[in-house]
Amino acid sequence: MYIGLPNPNQLIPLKKLHISKAGGTDLGFDVLFNPEKYVQTRQVQYSDKAGLSMDMPITQFSHGSAEILKFSLFFDSMTAGSEVGGAFGDRLKMEVNSKPPSILKFVDVSTYTEKVYKLMEIDPKLHVPPLLRLDWGSLHFTGHLVQCEQNFVRFNEKGIPVRAWLECTFRQFISNVGTKSLESPDTTKYRTVRQGDTLSGFAGREYGEAGRWREIAKANHMTNPRLLRSGDTIALPALK
C-alpha cells in the first residue's frame, strides 16, 4: 500500500500544451500530443558608428527583439482518443483499431491540425490575427503564430491524411505600455554632426544647459572642442 502517493498501477493523464486566445472568453484547446522539445530565441542588435578622431568605431546598442518560440507538433488520428490525446467524441468516429490501417475509416487528421493552422487567420472583429496564450508546465507565452508548416506524412487507401507534423513559430507580443524612452537624459545617445553644430549647442538641446559641453568633449576624448567635422557621430553621455 502506498500512503500519500499515487497508485502506481493507475495511469495519470499527461498535462497537455494548451493554446487559447488571450484576453477573451475562448477556452482554447489542448494539442493532441505534447512536443518533444521547444526552442526559445532572443536577439539584440548593435551597430557601429564612426567616432571623432578614433581608429575604431563606436559600438552602439540599437534595439532588442521579441522572443521567438519554436516547436514541432505531431498529429495522428489513428490513436486520437487514447490516453495520449484526443477526446471521447473522437473515438466514436473511428472503427476498431485492431484492423489493418488500410481498411480503417480514420478521422482526417486535418480536423486537428486546422485548429492550429487557422490561428494565423485574421479575426474579423479585430482585423488582425488573434493574440495567443500558450501554457504548458512552466511555459507561459503570449504572442502570435507567425509561421506554420503542415507536413502530411501518412494516408489511408482513399488518400485521406491520417498523420501529420506541424512546424510552428510563435513571436512574442510586447506592449509599448511602460517602456522606457530611448531619448531620456539618463540614456547615452548618438548624434550626427552637421554644418554649424557646436558642443555647447548639443549640450543646450540635449541637457538644457549649454555649459555641460565639457562632459560631451570628455566622453568623445576631444582635446579641441572646435574640431567638429560634418558627418561624424558624436556621443552624448547620460546625465549623472
UniProtKB/TrEMBL annotation:
Transmembrane feature ranges: none
Originating organism: bioreactor metagenome
Residues of the LysM domain: 189-236
SMART domains tied to this protein: LysM
Pfam families per record: CIS_tube, LysM
Protein name as it appears in the record: LysM domain-containing protein
